[in-house]
């Protein structure tokens, strides 16, 4: 199958508008005749289900949590981008478009990114109308702050709870449709396979996680909005339940999986503490607006800090290496995430890490300068032009508390250290995945009728996502793209009638799911699911993590293949199928992670360049920056499934053509 991205003709500023004007429609009286399944109820899924329900379609929405409010979108802290130029600092739709393409290291599809920038302003209007409590300035107007990879303030935020507030807005819209009977909500249900009839997506097989019952659900179209696959690394900032299963199941049914090696390592995470840790905690990137990142200039100082003989506050200013400000003076602490993460790794690898863990990996995020600066500004604004040091610090801490208070509180509860007094300790960790199911301009996969939204698709972020763009993409897809493109597809379905679930295709899909469940429950293994998941995570982090090379990737492919075979032979899953069984849930998910992990290593191995979050150590310039190969690798790598031997996956290439921007080496100096 050849890849057809269906990008419209015309100038990039007009593509989406002209395209919408010529899409097919479904009349309001025909929409109740059509069923749509939405898998996942985070920002992309909830907004899509609410929008399609409001239009009059019959929607079934599925989530494995006890409520849509538990979706991992709730964990997003820092903000959401939009090109409204409220700060009058030169922002525009084109600048947001350009920053996103550049931030993704010129590996994103131009037309999709421009559409995202176009609708970004509408998202803010929609959310304000829903009552999302965005932060406001002293005059009552919506406030903005900076984020990594940009030189303008375009990020709207709600303290450190932006994802939660946006999800509650989408959930309120979804709840209204549930109350009207247009959306039927299936909580505690997990999709375990896609059902195709005559080549089209026609339904899913789902498991009721409370009773264990296997259910059949049919529809005229299926939307996958199940998030990213960062938990393939075991330790990540993702919720423990986040998984790849829905996306991987449609991949095995014929949906191409694009750029799986593109994984974002977030620079501001609380460092790993011990070997028994099961999750990492993210500190919002917004903190880089006010915090300065540093390590000691002297190795002996770093060693003393790790040994507990020296405190960071005892390190003199001239003995601190503010390495981001030193290396990237134009952007400083606001360089993109991949750049900041690699710089932290470089310092720690060189022996300057400050955390007393098994790897000595950690750097400081210090707010002392901001406390001083904002304290003096506040005192001056209050008429006190000669404040004491105590007054300055007190006012500065109050300013920080108003801006980031809940984040500081969270950090103190986790680490038992007061970040107002002592610099935060941070280190990069797996966060977001830019790769995902390949989709065309309509957000439709290579399976007709199967659409993919939000982090589950690959389309908007290239090799590195700019901070505060995940929420933007999820809501753009759900509120402002899918209602048009799904309707265009469904215009040919108004005479189809209800899709029966007693067909051979549903029989076969249900049998396959039950066989898989029975296999795990009857396997005579001796090791837990977590044992294998941790082993997979170790391979992924060490060989398919921040630094990659040909030898490590080649070893990873072979090691994951061997681990997967051992997993199916030795894994032990207690309990039964007809009950709440978390170990069974994990086993089914880890089985998919095993296959995905191998494909990620294969994808990274074939991409012989460094770009964004994909850093091949063999391909870097003299200053340690990414060295792209635009002549040979300016493409989307979309993989086609060919059976359980992942080595047989076939690579298809979608060439990336940039008509409206000039490709250049990324420079944040």
Automatic annotation (TrEMBL):
One of its GO terms (molecular function) is electron transfer activity. The active site is at residue 337. It is an enzyme of class 1 (oxidoreductase). One of its GO terms (biological process) is anaerobic respiration. It is a peripheral membrane protein. Residues 533-668 form the Fumarate reductase/succinate dehydrogenase flavoprotein-like C-terminal domain. One of its GO terms (cellular component) is plasma membrane. Its cofactor is FAD. It catalyses: a quinone + succinate = fumarate + a quinol. InterPro entries: FAD-dep_OxRdtase_2_FAD-bd, FAD/NAD-bd_sf, Fum_R/Succ_DH_flav-like_C_sf, Fum_Rdtase/Succ_DH_flav-like_C, SdhA/FrdA/AprA, Succ_DH/Fum_Rdt_flav_su, Succ_DH/fumarate_Rdtase_cat_sf. Its main location: membrane. Its EC number is 1.3.5.1. Pfam families: FAD_binding_2, Succ_DH_flav_C. It is found in: Cell membrane. Belongs to the FAD-dependent oxidoreductase 2 family. FRD/SDH subfamily. This is succinate dehydrogenase. It comes from Flavobacterium endophyticum. The lineage of its organism: Bacteria, Pseudomonadati, Bacteroidota, Flavobacteriia, Flavobacteriales.
